[in-house]
């Protein structure tokens, strides 16, 4: 096709950009390029001469193909598939030849409007090509020209579908057919593998990486599909896509098709007025601490990219050069930081090599776009997909793609990279939001704190801030822009607030509190190497949570008496195949050696849910937090679990080596793993390590007495236990202020755990509460004998324990259990700890 095809409006209405469509898949161009019409008419007509290539069973979408092969998809309204045909009357069928203006559908707008998320209707080019939009934001009548399309020229040889292809059949349980939402899930899954996957229905087939191609198959509920895959990862891709389709793609079950009712975000009300003109902002703690400093506003200019390229060869070369430069820069930066930084940058490198992103960018370049425009198109599609999946942690991964988008666009612009910001000592960085690369580029010595209007407590920036020991507050709202550059601010991340232009009295209080905190930290570090005991000599072990071998030696130097939680995910993430037994052994042994005979507790793989693995295909889950995660993943794939247990059994240490199982909910799960552990020990000729469980579900807490005879120890994972006890998603930034593990309900579950597991070797806490200074005495009072904290907090936790007797701890815990809120518990603990610290100082002076 060498000439443009003029597409005429299929319906009366207001024509607008896809950016105005309130649906991430359409607005993000994941379904295709084009425009949208907000309809006022009740008839849908053919946009040009051609053939009806597909008609949805429900009548909400119809595609027309021109004789030259251009295919236009008309999707009437949003979430209209859920109407199951109500409000739509079809006047054609698939295969009907039509002329421009022929009647395709009649609408009952009242019925459609009542059941749709929106009437706005995307009009999209369903195959690869160039779209030229005619003037938007105007009223049009059916038959008026709205855009012109030109198909992309075919490039390269056609793949021989029969060559070395694997096939499987699957019956698709899709009550409303394969529409945009389930198709986007298949496409996302297919693009995560180095393989070509096709869906074959009768004589028609579609590339699984193309949403539009799949949607035009005309797949109906119960149709039998043939899945074909070829390429290096064909087998894994085939298994994953088969499982995904067989699961129903989230489309089955009563009410599954209704548009989710999204709770309006809890937008901060804006800063409150304090004394003497103060502005007080409330936010969510991302990293603890209290600092006083000068505000430094971090802004970033928008990078303009030309839409049209200078030629395919030139733009391809420019993109490859930019990818190479950015990849080299990230690889050099990986070696400079700790485990968290390395893991984040490894994720960035994986995105740079993502075949789906690269293929999308390549297709855009071949369609005449510039390298920058093509890269932005690819990344924005991924961003939209991440944000549309309904999981807060996954949505935050969109920031990583935005970070890479910006880095490549800077490189492609030909301009010098922005010079690092010059900071003064004690700078408190303020920003609408921060990208990981921006934070890494700052002078860490001079960054006293971070505060962002947006962001979440589980973002990569929050993780980096905590690893740097920099207090950070996020999600304070758009009013943050009212704080001027250079203004004095008090950032109290512990108290979840930022105070701009603090009064003299507040400055004095903050300075006193910060100085006292600094003194306590210095004293704690001086005594970090000593064993931890209460004031009356009761031994409490304080361990560290570790993420990889690089963290072990620094943790020991900081006073850690062992590792109470080794997160083994670092071995399994960001790779295309599972680590071998020898690979795992090498890492575990290196950590045991660094601990030099101190206890090592190795948690088995905690994948699934928000930590998907490409080589561990899982069925789609509407609620991943309640699905195949934790120990359930291991029992779902016992081959992976047995390999990990064999590696642990081979670790040699003069100290205790233990295995800990995540997300336990029943004795049956423990018995199954115990049987595998016995097999691993027998096969490796070693002695089975100790076996313990994480108490992360209310079920495990309430049945600790039933679990105890089958295990050697317990450790409470307070992060998950809190979200399940309070029915609040711990990844939801809007609930973070309420999601406090010192809630009496959570404390009562911990008390029940300690009572039920009293006869085990130790009762630990390895969740976030173990790093909370106010929580330590309460936990000890409830019966906890081991705390596994963030390495940077170990010395301070030890110091907090040393000022209280066991009787003090028990009295505090007993009173805390009678209170009605986490706020009340915190106030009580703060008062008691402050009084004991004061009495200690007075006693020392006397």
In spatial order, strands of the major sheet run: 19-20-27-26-22-23-24-25-21
Q: Might you state the CATH topology name of the largest domain?
A: TIM Barrel
Radius of gyration using CA atoms only: 29 Å
Decide which structural class fits the backbone: alpha/beta
How many E strands?
35
Outline the low-pLDDT stretches: 154-164, 252-268, 841-846
Q: Which whole number gives the mean pLDDT?
A: 81
Shape: globular
Beta-strand percentage?
15-25%
The tally of domains stands at 5
**Secondary structure tally, helices:** 28
> Helical proportion?
25-40%
Distance between the termini: 94 Å
User: Which CATH top level class of the largest domain fits?
Assistant: Alpha Beta
Major beta-sheet overview: 9 strands, mixed
Q: In the CATH hierarchy, what is the architecture of the largest domain at level 2?
A: Alpha-Beta Barrel
Give a written overview of the molecule.
This protein has about 850 residues and is an alpha/beta fold. It has 5 domains: about 5-150, Glucose Permease (Domain IIA); about 165-245, Histidine-containing Protein, Chain: A; about 270-300 and about 420-520, Glucose Oxidase, domain 1 (3-Layer(bba) Sandwich); about 310-415, PtsI, HPr-binding domain (Enzyme I, Chain A, domain 2, Orthogonal Bundle), CATH 1.10.274.10; about 530-615 and about 625-845, Phosphoenolpyruvate-binding domains (TIM Barrel), CATH 3.20.20.60. Helices cover about 35% and strands about 20% of the residues. It is built from 28 helices and 35 strands. The strands form 6 sheets. A 9-stranded mixed sheet has the order 19-20-27-26-22-23-24-25-21. The protein has an 8-stranded antiparallel sheet with strand order 9-5-6-7-11-3-2-13, with no helix packed on it. Strands 28-29-30-31-32-33-34-35 form an 8-stranded parallel β-barrel, surrounded by 4 helices. The chain is globular. Residues about 155-165, about 250-270 and about 840-845 have low confidence and may be disordered.
